[in-house]
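pipeline/complex-builder :: batch 7 item 3
reading input block
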Amino acid sequence: MRIVIIKYNAGNIRSVQIALERQGIFPIISDDPEVIHAADKIIFPGVGEASSAMAYLTERSLDRVIADARQPFLGICLGMQLMCSHSEENDTTCLGIFEENVRKFSTSDNSIKIPQIGWNSITNLKSSLFEGINENSYCYFVHSYFASIGKHTIAQTHYCGEYSASLHKNNFYGVQFHPEKSADVGASIINNFLKIPS
Amino acid sequence: MLTKRIIPCLDIKDGRTVKGTNFVDLRDAGDPVELAALYADQGADELVFLDITATNEKRKTLAQLVDRIAHRINIPFTVGGGIASVEDVRILLDSGADKISVNTAAFKNPELIASLASSFGSQCVVLAIDTKKHADNQWYVYLNGGRVATESICEHWAAKGVSLGAGEILLTSMDHDGTKKGFATEITAVVSQTVNVPVIASGGGGIPEHFAEIFDHGADAALAASIFHFKEVMIPELKSFLKSRQISVR
């Protein structure tokens, strides 16, 4: 199975690569449209800032490559946010695969820290991506922006209100948490993604 | 609901754990990777590795160790000790670390925090602060592993660090460290109210009650070392206790 991780100007790509290596899978890291096009599965990870990431993708026509993908495609954290319509982070127009929008956590409660860092539970699990995963399982999150709940929501989490922990439309999947750092629950979710037929 | 985090800390020297442990079930208790895997299995939420050699010639050893850790465990981990440049951090993140912690070098050159945050994102920049209370009832920042006093007030430096881009504060009370008489509730509460990023309390945890107490004082995570290494507190029992006290844990 040829797994391609999309290389761009965002962090955390190495962690995803190592997580796959832990499972005996050696992914290709590439920003070459032909290599991405030939993949069986595509993973789009990333932590970073939305507008500079979108500018980088657009400059290299990777925005079109992503939108045109027909293989099972998994966006992680910033990757998922970039698959949405719009992000409040520097007022960025994103890829528009999911109609949901990305907003910043806001609260008048001073004791609530932003970014959210740590383990939070996922609920209302609605996809084969979560096969064998119990409701209220814990996943590891690190983020200041979140995707709202919408018709593509397949898992949700509570922090300053409910938001989308995961989105799904056709061959496209996104998770806000880091499955590569979410212990056995995360490893199962990655395995479920890898089992989706190409 | 976001849970409170329990973080074992491993001191590393020349690629080996420094303090002895009584984990007889480990093949090699001096191997940080074995110990890390054990803690991950027991339900540790994150790990911190503190390299106390951290001289330049040892960097390669540390990077190799980080790579081995990353290939073995599937929870987040932070690496600290002697980090002084963007290049130091790049090597550790490329080796698979999720976060790095900076201490003395950041105090001497606060722009380091801004450079790290803009290069890699605030989420991976942990500002470690060692602090001690003086006779004037103020908590002061200490450097070089607690050997060098400064005239900076702890919460002022924490606030400055966060404004420069630190994403978390790792706060160690030198007055409490090693005592097993409880965490520093007072300064932890002050720092937690001063900054709007998570605060990891460190130093003084001896029994489960201490963890409940520090979480009630605003800590988002609590770090300890020898009580875990010597099985004085076991993570599964600690988490059961915290749950019984209505504290949210994984």
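note: Residues 183-195 of chain A form the longest helix (13 residues).
queue -> next item
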